[in-house]
Structures are given as C-alpha cells and as structure tokens.
C-alpha cells in the first residue's frame, strides 16, 4: 500500500514538473511573438519609451499601411506563395513516388538505388558545381532556379518509404486479384491511406521553402522575383527599408522609429501563412511523423 502511495506521489510530482516545464516553454515562445505582434500595432515612440500599452490611443496600423502602399513586400509575399506552393507539389510528388517504389519488395536494384540516395545525404557537389549546373540549364534568374535544386529530399523519401512499408500488404494483393494495375493500386488505395504522411511532407516542404532565402540570393538578379524572406532579410539584418515606405520629410529620429515599426509589421506578415496553415495540418502531423519515422 505504501509502495502504491509512493508511486502515486512520484507520478504526481513528475506531472507537476512536466506542466511547469511546458508552461515555461510556452511563455518563452509566446512572449517574443506577442511582443512583435503588439510592436507592429503600437506607435514607435510609445513602444520605445513605455513598452507594451493596451491604450487604443497608442495603436496604429501605419506600419501595415506603408507596407501595402509600397508593394515590394507584397510582391515578395506572393512570390514566396508561388515558390513554396510549386516546391511543395513537386517535392511531395517525388517523395511519395520514390518512397513507394522503394517500399516494393521485388524492386530491381533496390539496394544500389537506396545506397545512391543515402550517399547524397552525406556528400554533395557543393555550391559552385550546383551553380554551374543551374547556369548551364539556363535557369538563372528564373523561379525554377529556386525550386528545382532542393526539390528532392532524401529524408522525405525515407519517411514516405517507411510509412508505405507499414501499410497492410493484403490490400495490394486483394487489388491485384481484382485485376488492378500497380498504378491503380497506388492511386486508388495507397494515396488515400497516406494522407498523414503526405500532409506532413507538404508541411515540411512548404515551411522549408517559405523560410528559404539563400537560393534566391544566389540565383536571382531581378528584384521583382525576390521572395519575401530575402526582402525581409534586407530589412532586418541590413536595415534597408525601401525609401518608398518612408516619407522624405520625416526627421532622422522619426525615420528610425517608423523603420522599426515596419520591421515588426513585416515579421507578422511573413508569419501569417504558417500560423494559418498549421491548425489544418495538426491532426495529421503527429501520426504522420511517428508512423513515418518508426516502424
């Protein structure tokens, strides 16, 4: 009896520690987000001198107004949507097709193909050879230079392969008895059963491409094709706010305050698609990750 009570106390203590840790993690995650969100709506001088303020008289949408009026950030936003969407469709298609093929037991040269994929995870050609390949294909300064080089992810292929190997083989055997071809089995049976891993791969691919800026910085010259993250990098790191966002009549101190407000507004705008997207993918996320990574 005493042993059971001691175990119960230990369990309660462990749960309490877990709750405290989770609350701490939530706080250190939410506080910066709330600071940036409120900073995008507060008047710059109030934020710098008083900090947070819930007084409606101190709120303003001037940062967002300047962003929408200028157009460069919105153009980068729509460019990022286009790049991330095309990249996601292509990357997920490659991952599920290659993963399903490698999950088939009687695939010819299965081990050499798998070794070739795994080899590329540890050894790559590097930046200069990749740049030369992109240039020789005539892809410089096009959206495909941003999308194609990283579309094949070996890690995503491994996740998809492991998930497909966990599906019941009896379903495929029954479909073959009914006369279904391999393509029809994949399209009508495998894909509908693979929604969790497909949504997880899509989330990985979209987030990765949405946050990417290095490829665009290397391969793109036309600024009208820049993604949002590359424009945001210029604003946050290099402090290069587009002059069209700030009036020439503003004093230097006021320009600095307005520049800070534009930075906060830009960060919020860049985070919106991911914040809107994640709740719809959440129900598939845990199942897809666990089944795809462990067998």
From TrEMBL:
Species this chain originates from: Terribacillus halophilus
GO cellular component terms listed in the entry, alphabetical order: plasma membrane
Major place of residence: membrane
Start and end residues of each ABC transmembrane type-1 domain: 77-280
A single GO BP: transmembrane transport
UniProt similarity note: Belongs to the binding-protein-dependent transport system permease family.
Lineage: Bacteria, Bacillati, Bacillota, Bacilli, Bacillales
Membrane-protein topology: Multi-pass membrane protein
InterPro entries linked: MetI-like, MetI-like_sf
Residue ranges crossing the lipid bilayer per the database entry: 20-42, 81-102, 114-132, 144-164, 185-207, 261-281
Protein name as annotated: Putative aldouronate transport system permease protein
């Amino acid at each position: 009896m005493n042993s059971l009570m001691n175990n119960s106390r230990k369990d309660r203590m462990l749960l309490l520690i877990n709750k405290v840790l989770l609350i701490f993690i939530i706080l250190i995650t939410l506080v910066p987000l709330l600071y940036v969100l409120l900073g995008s709506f507060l008047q710059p001088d109030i934020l710098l001198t008083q900090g947070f303020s819930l007084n409606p008289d101190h709120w303003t949408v001037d940062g967002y107004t300047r962003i929408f009026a200028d157009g460069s950030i919105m153009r980068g936003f729509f460019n990022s949507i286009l790049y991330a969407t095309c990249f996601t469709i292509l990357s997920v298609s490659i991952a599920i097709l290659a993963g399903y093929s490698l999950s088939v037991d009687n695939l010819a040269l299965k081990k050499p193909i798998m070794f070739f994929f795994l080899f590329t995870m540890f050894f790559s050609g590097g930046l200069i050879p990749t740049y030369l390949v992109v240039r020789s294909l005539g892809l410089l300064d096009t959206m495909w230079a941003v999308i194609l080089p990283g579309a094949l992810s070996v890690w995503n292929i491994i996740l998809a392969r492991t998930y497909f190997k966990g599906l019941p083989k009896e379903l495929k055997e029954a479909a073959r008895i009914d006369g279904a071809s391999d393509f029809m089995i994949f399209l009508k049976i495998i894909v509908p059963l693979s929604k969790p891993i497909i949504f997880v791969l899509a989330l990985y691919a979209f987030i990765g491409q949405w946050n990417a800026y290095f490829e665009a910085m290397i391969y793109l010259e036309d600024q009208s094709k820049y993604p949002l993250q590359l424009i945001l990098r210029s604003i946050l790191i290099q402090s290069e706010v587009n002059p069209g966002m700030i009036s020439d009549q503003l004093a230097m101190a006021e320009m600095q305050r307005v520049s800070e407000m534009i930075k906060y507004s830009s960060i919020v705008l860049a985070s919106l698609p991911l914040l809107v997207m994640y709740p719809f993918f959440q129900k598939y996320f845990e199942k897809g990750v666990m089944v795809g990574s462990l067998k």
